[in-house]
């Protein structure tokens, strides 16, 4: 908590940009501080990824993953954007990290 506001970090595949923005707005309007991913994988950001050599791309993705774990450290809980039940490898890692660090985990869609 920061003051009276709960801090929530959004986790999920960067391909779900529209859903991230909807959930971010919804949770913010409920009085939460929302931390999200910094870079989405979409057509308008393709130039970022396409202009990187393989080593730089790998290092950048590792750095962004580490930054996201630091956002989880700052949060009271995480909210998983699991559109159509999809949870990728990175998101599974983030969920495991959150649970290991006693963070509450909520999901957009129910888990089977």
What does this protein look like?
This protein has 4 helices and 4 strands, in the order βαβααβαβ. It has 112 residues and is of the alpha/beta class. A 4-stranded parallel beta sheet has the order 2-1-3-4, with helices on both faces. The radius of gyration is 14 Å and the shape is globular.
How many helices? The count is 4
Mean pLDDT: 93
Question: What share of residues are in beta strands?
Answer: 15-25%
**Rounded radius of gyration (Å):** 14 Å
Report the end-to-end length measured between terminal Cα atoms.
30 Å
What strand line-up does the widest sheet have? 2-1-3-4
What's the total number of strands?
A: 4
Helix content: 40-55%
Oligomer: single chain
Short description:
By secondary structure, the chain is α/β, with parallel strands linked by helices.
Give me some keywords for this one:
alpha/beta; single chain; 4 helices; globular; 112 residues
């Amino acid at each position: 908590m920061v003051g009276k506001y709960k801090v929530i970090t959004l986790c999920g595949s960067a391909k779900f940009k529209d859903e991230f923005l909807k959930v971010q707005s919804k949770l913010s309007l409920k009085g939460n501080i929302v931390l999200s991913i910094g870079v989405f994988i979409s057509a308008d950001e393709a130039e970022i990824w396409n202009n990187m050599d393989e080593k730089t791309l790998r290092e950048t993705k590792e750095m962004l993953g580490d930054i996201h774990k630091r956002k989880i450290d700052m949060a009271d809980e995480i909210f998983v954007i699991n559109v159509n039940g999809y949870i990728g490898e990175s998101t599974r890692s983030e969920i495991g990290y959150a649970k290991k660090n006693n963070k509450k985990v909520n999901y957009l869609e129910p888990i089977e």
